[in-house]
Amino acid sequence: ALPIMAIVGRPNVGKSTLVNRIIGKRLAVVEDTPGVTRDRVTYTAEWAGTDFILMDTGGWEHNVTGIDLSVAQGAEVAMEMADAIMFVVDATVGATATDEKVMKLLRRTKKPVILVANKVDGPQGELEAAALWNLGLGEPYPVSALHGRGIGDLLDVAVAAL
Ligand code: GDP
Ligand code: MG
To answer: How many CA atoms lie within 13 A of 121 on its CB side?
Structure first.
């Protein structure tokens, strides 16, 4: 079976945009309204010769009531099923209370967690990304899922963790 990379994070941080960027297609549904994702959950992906399964835990956002619950459920599923976890935070917003809850869940896992600081569309966003060191999950990788910035460096690290 292929290794599984799970993508965890609040609604609207850019999980589906990141999925589309990684798979190089527009298959995941990108929504401007938080919490209404209808994406499928798994996709096949490849980076630098490594095939893997990409799991968008936002695909369950409509299944439960309450943002905290659904994001926590995504984190639990990821910790159980994935070989590595990408935790996506919106660097332009910073870490929210929900992000802190997810951080606490993810700190329980021994699986590799890669902290993705998304929406860093230009160099001026690097400082906001660096502020996410405070989550205590290691180095934040600044990316723009929308424009592709930083995605290669992120995937090098993430795939090496599989
Ligand atoms: P999800 O709910 O986490 O799956 O988030 P989506 O992928 O649906 O994206 C939510 C919104 O954020 C959409 O309007 C996206 O276009 C926008 N978005 C996603 N990634 C980026 C990014 O890197 N930069 C900017 N500026 N916007 C982004
Ligand atoms: Mg989504």
So the answer is: 5
